[in-house]
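Note to self: keep these together.
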Amino acid sequence: MSLGSPGRGALRRIYQEVAPRYELVNHLLTLGLDIRWRRRAARVAVASEGGSWLDVCSGTGEMAAELHRAANRAITVAAFDLSVPMLVRARGKRRLRPDAFASGDVAHLPFRNGTFTGVTIAFAARNLNTSRRHLEIRLRECFRVLIPGGRLINLETSQPESRLWRRLFHHYAALTVRPLARTVSGSRSGYAYLAHTIPRFYSAAELDEMLFAAGAARVTHIRLWGGIAALHIAEKAR
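Structure:
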């Protein structure tokens, strides 16, 4: 399923445009649930292991900061994103080291095989989904940089199994994302694109299949709020 996602240059422009109020808009649109979900994802990620983590499509560094907050032992977190303006804002996060940032394309991560204990992606897999094949390529690249037995933690909007709940969720996204986000952020194109991706992304079961195809040996997922979001935990073969 392709979302008709824009190219790298267009995505850079979109996120440069929305960067100043990106976090505020997300919190308003989700009624603060995105904060709770990131914290839950971070607890799942670092509950049993420390080590080094890569936060892919880190944006303003919210997920990277939550990993540090949740860790009960020393960890390092590298924030990686296509948008430099977003990473500039991430540098302001108190819990992030100033040398743990890199910019580039997820299809070509600038790290050696087996570099990281874990990889996280929070509300960004939709941006990587220029096509199903391209998303699998980018997920495979995330598995490449994991150590054997390392885990990819993906938090993303999903599709509720209940037809009624799914329809209500899609109506909410259609009615609120563009007008509210445009009013708060001043961006027309950015949130038109983001609203377009929500009803067109994969179900939790479909994303399970893609994670296996990309190299996972084991995959589980947790549905959040009736399935409007899902937390996937995918382990690389040992």
